[in-house]
């Protein structure tokens, strides 16, 4: 039997690649191929840079490879409920029906999203602590880790060459914790003893020395705020998905006997989910939004949301633009939500609004670390796992590089450390790296709201043109039967030229439009769509020659049935 296992390891092929999350912040998606089966780990979104977004809400992965190979996908594993690892899941599941494996709280959130998006036929498997499951042809071990979301886990996929392990997003925290947050280092040690072939670890905190814990907690600073402002009403901002932080806030309020108002429906729903999972909040400290009294001075208003919307909510409160709350200068606003990429402008705008209203603002997050592994946390996992190969994932290239330096410091040779790019495939056979080549050409998919997301890339390009070079609209009316011009052309521009200074341009453009239509009618080649395309091409070339700009040109040809007039 041992000889048979050895023979199998000689034929098994492993391919590892990412469709997002490498050399960027967010949009995480790892793919593990073992022979003919594909395991997907994470399906997250990325928020665009504020200067380049042009109305785009977020960015997801290019699923082309997965669509072409959907029959080989055996499961999607979501390690926790943050947008950067699960936000793109509904867009994937709309196109590919596949089982999802995730933690109990995340499972509830995914089910809610699927109902909202009317996605059916998806089986969701809640993962318990130290679950072992058979997914496809292989055993998959889920080991608990400590992160900002309850039930977060790492993943180990069994192969004949050893385990392929993704550590999950984690920190070391040895203090007494609820089981839903406690990591299990004994399982991690067992995996290392059995044999880890490849270890993939996130890189977001790789530039930080030491351990992340205990500097991830806001409890010490929030306790000071509650003590110093015991007669002030306090507003606290927190991301809805930062469950660990929300529970810290609630626990502090309980300790100081402060009444709490859960401001958003999402937060109210989250607290009810936590209660279902065994987390208790004293009912006497919860204030019903319908019975809010603005004279309550012992009140803590917990405001939650995601990204830009959270800071806009705080701005609305500070500007007295909400009906139920009267904000005054005695109120204290506490920011317990980090300023993540893409929300910087909204945060600055919020700060301005608060100071204009003479409000007091305290930013906790300036001295609090996010719950991602720092250098010593990463070293601990490498030490216990003892992998043959090490692959840094999740983060900008400089962070991937710093993560790789940690492995070098621990004695790994450069040939055993792989820094990949999105679409680059690392192939392993017979326990060795065979190739590491760029095989997939990937394109970001821009999401503009919730509808028509597949067209958002076109929308983004159009907005870019409009913002820089402007638009020209050309309208003309033709007789529907004779195709003779009966009115126009009418030329309108925005953001291109000042018409009084360049009337010759509009005159020339009108002539181009008229002549193109007349020639097409005379040659009996007139077609509304084809002729509009020809006009657009000719006018665009003319405008670039005259103005050095490439505006959006929109020709409109109205064919009017004159027999119905008068």
UniProtKB/TrEMBL annotation:
<dbReference type="Pfam" id="PF17770">
    <property type="entry name" value="RNase_J_C"/>
</dbReference>
<dbReference type="Pfam" id="PF00753">
    <property type="entry name" value="Lactamase_B"/>
</dbReference>
<dbReference type="InterPro" id="IPR001279">
    <property type="entry name" value="Metallo-B-lactamas"/>
</dbReference>
<keyword id="KW-0378">Hydrolase</keyword>
<feature type="domain" description="Metallo-beta-lactamase">
    <location>
        <begin position="26"/>
        <end position="216"/>
    </location>
</feature>
<keyword id="KW-0963">Cytoplasm</keyword>
<dbReference type="InterPro" id="IPR036866">
    <property type="entry name" value="RibonucZ/Hydroxyglut_hydro"/>
</dbReference>
<keyword id="KW-0694">RNA-binding</keyword>
<dbReference type="InterPro" id="IPR055132">
    <property type="entry name" value="RNase_J_b_CASP"/>
</dbReference>
<protein>
    <submittedName>
        <fullName>Ribonuclease J</fullName>
    </submittedName>
</protein>
<keyword id="KW-0269">Exonuclease</keyword>
<dbReference type="InterPro" id="IPR041636">
    <property type="entry name" value="RNase_J_C"/>
</dbReference>
<dbReference type="InterPro" id="IPR042173">
    <property type="entry name" value="RNase_J_2"/>
</dbReference>
<dbReference type="InterPro" id="IPR004613">
    <property type="entry name" value="RNase_J"/>
</dbReference>
<dbReference type="GO" id="GO:0004527">
    <property type="term" value="F:exonuclease activity"/>
</dbReference>
<dbReference type="GO" id="GO:0046872">
    <property type="term" value="F:metal ion binding"/>
</dbReference>
<dbReference type="GO" id="GO:0003723">
    <property type="term" value="F:RNA binding"/>
</dbReference>
<keyword id="KW-0540">Nuclease</keyword>
<dbReference type="Pfam" id="PF22505">
    <property type="entry name" value="RNase_J_b_CASP"/>
</dbReference>
């Amino acid at each position: 039997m041992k000889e048979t296992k050895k023979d199998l390891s000689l034929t098994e092929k492993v391919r590892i690649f990412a469709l997002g999350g490498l050399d960027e912040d967010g949009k995480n998606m790892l793919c593990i191929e073992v022979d003919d089966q594909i395991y997907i780990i994470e399906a997250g979104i990325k928020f665009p840079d504020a200067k380049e977004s042009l109305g785009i809400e977020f960015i997801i992965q290019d699923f082309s490879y997965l669509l072409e190979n959907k029959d080989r996908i055996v499961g999607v594993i979501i390690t926790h409920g943050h947008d950067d690892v699960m936000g793109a899941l509904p867009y994937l599941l709309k196109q590919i029906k596949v089982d999802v494996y995730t933690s109990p709280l995340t499972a509830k959130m995914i089910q809610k999203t699927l109902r909202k998006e009317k996605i059916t036929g998806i089986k969701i498997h809640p993962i318990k602590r130290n679950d072992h499951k058979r997914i496809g042809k292989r055993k998959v071990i889920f080991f608990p880790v400590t992160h900002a979301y309850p039930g977060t886990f790492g993943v180990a996929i069994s192969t004949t060459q050893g385990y392929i392990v993704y550590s999950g997003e984690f920190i070391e925290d040895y203090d007494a914790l609820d089981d839903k947050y406690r990591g299990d280092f004994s399982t991690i040690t067992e995996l290392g003893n059995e044999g880890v072939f490849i270890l993939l670890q996130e890189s977001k905190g790789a530039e930080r020395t030491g351990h992340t814990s205990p500097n991830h907690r806001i409890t010490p600073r929030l306790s000071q705020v509650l003590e110093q402002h015991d007669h002030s009403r306090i507003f606290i901002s927190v991301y809805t998905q930062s469950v660990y932080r929300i529970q810290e806030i609630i626990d502090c309020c309980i300790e100081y006997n402060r009444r709490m108002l859960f401001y958003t429906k999402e937060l109210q729903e989250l607290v009810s989910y936590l209660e279902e999972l065994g987390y208790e909040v004293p009912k006497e400290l919860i204030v019903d939004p319908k019975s809010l009294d603005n004279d309550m001075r012992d009140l803590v208003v917990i405001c939650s949301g995601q990204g830009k919307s959270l800071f806009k909510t705080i701005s609305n409160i500070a500007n007295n633009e909400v009906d139920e709350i009267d904000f005054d200068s005695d109120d204290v606003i506490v920011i317990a939500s980090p300023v993540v990429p893409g929300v910087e402008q909204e945060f600055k705008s919020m700060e301005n609004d608060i100071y204009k209203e003479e409000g007091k603002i305290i930013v906790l997050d300036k001295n609090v670390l996010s719950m991602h592994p720092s250098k010593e946390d990463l070293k601990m996992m490498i030490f216990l796992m003892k992998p043959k190969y090490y692959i840094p994932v999740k983060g900008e290239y400089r962070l991937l590089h710093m993560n790789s330096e940690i492995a070098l410091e621990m004695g790994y040779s450069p040939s055993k450390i792989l820094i990949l790019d999105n679409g680059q495939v690392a192939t392993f056979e017979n326990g060795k790296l065979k190739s590491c080549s760029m095989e997939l050409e990937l394109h970001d998919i821009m999401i503009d709201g919730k509808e028509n997301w597949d067209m958002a890339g076109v929308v983004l390009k159009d907005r870019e043109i409009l913002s820089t070079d402007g638009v020209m609209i050309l309208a003309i009316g033709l007789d529907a039967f004779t195709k003779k011009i009966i009115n126009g052309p009418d030329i309108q521009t925005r953001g291109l030229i000042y018409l009084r200074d360049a009337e010759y341009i509009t005159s020339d453009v009108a002539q181009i439009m008229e002549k193109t239509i007349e020639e097409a009618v005379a040659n009996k080649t007139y077609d509304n769509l084809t002729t509009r395309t020809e006009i657009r091409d000719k006018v665009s070339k003319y405008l670039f020659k005259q103005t050095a700009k490439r505006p959006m040109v929109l020709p409109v040809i109205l064919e009017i049935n004159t027999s119905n007039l008068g």
